[in-house]
Write a structure and sequence with these properties.
The chain is of the alpha/beta class. It has a single domain, classed as Rossmann fold. It is about 35% helix and about 15% strand. It is built from 9 helices and 8 strands. The strands form 2 sheets. It has a 6-stranded parallel beta sheet, sandwiched between helices. Helix 2 packs across helix 3. It is globular, with a radius of gyration of 16 Å. It starts with a strand and ends with a helix. GO terms for molecular function: catalytic activity. It comes from Arthrobacter globiformis (strain ATCC 8010 / DSM 20124 / JCM 1332 / NBRC 12137 / NCIMB 8907 / NRRL B-2979 / 168). This is Putative esterase.
């Protein structure tokens, strides 16, 4: 199976390096994307928006023959959902890592502190304590050393969707900060945070208790969880 991995904010494709070994060992083909504007600290970020990131994933899909799985971490969840909307007939499962699908008109996060057209990785006190669970001082230092400013428009642009067949694509949510039991309660209550997720006809919730960056705090466990989701897809 071809698996496209889409990183969250401030990260490039190499951020998945600790996660991919079990996927490769199982014989899957891995495509860890670096999205536009995240190629380097001095890369151009002006004029790069959410649609550019979605288009980059769609281009990767179109370069692969046969069915595939999309995996998106954090803000990458909104991006892969946009790609599912564009290619619902090509994606056999979408895996959301501590994230979920972003519905029509939603934005990823327009409250992050920006510097011009980019959003540098903020100080740690901007994040909730739950985000930082298991992210010790060494991991924080390594994360900051590799972090690349995020194009501001990706965080602030509205999501636009058009194909209801996206709801037919099975989804797996790997729940880290919030346990699956809480996500289930929110879906049952019609909470807006999970409104789009609740519309998907086949949703699987998997618990991986840790902070918001499991690719750093629990990479082996995250790799195993993704592999299990792919294996269940067939």
């Amino acid at each position: 199976m071809d698996i496209i991995l889409v990183p969250g904010f401030w990260l490039d494709g190499s951020s998945w390096s600790g996660v991919t070994p079990p996927l490769v060992e199982a014989g899957h083909q891995i495509h860890a994307l670096t999205l536009p504007g995240l190629e380097a600290r001095d890369a151009k970020r002006t004029g790069i928006g959410l649609r550019d990131h979605i288009n980059a994933v769609v281009e990767a899909i179109d370069g692969i023959e046969g069915p595939l799985v999309l995996v998106g971490h954090s803000g990458g969840g909104a991006i892969i959902h946009g790609a599912v909307d564009e290619r619902p007939d090509r994606v056999v499962r979408a895996v959301y890592v501590d994230s979920g699908p972003l519905g029509e008109g939603g934005v990823i996060n327009d409250e992050l502190p920006a510097d011009g057209d980019e959003i540098p990785l903020p100080s740690w006190d901007v994040f909730d304590d739950a985000d930082l669970t298991d992210l010790d001082d060494g991991l924080r230092e390594a994360f900051r050393a590799r972090a690349i400013p995020q194009p501001k428009a990706v965080a602030c642009d509205k999501q636009h969707l058009h194909d209801v067949r996206r709801y037919d694509v099975p989804a797996t949510v790997i729940a880290c900060e919030f346990p699956s039991s809480l996500l289930t309660e929110w879906m049952d209550a019609g909470h807006p945070y999970v409104e789009e997720l609740a519309r998907i006809r086949d949703v699987e919730l998997v618990d991986l208790p840790t902070g918001h960056w499991p690719q750093f705090t629990k990479p082996a466990e995250l790799g195993a969880a993704i592999l299990a989701a792919v294996d269940r897809t067939g």
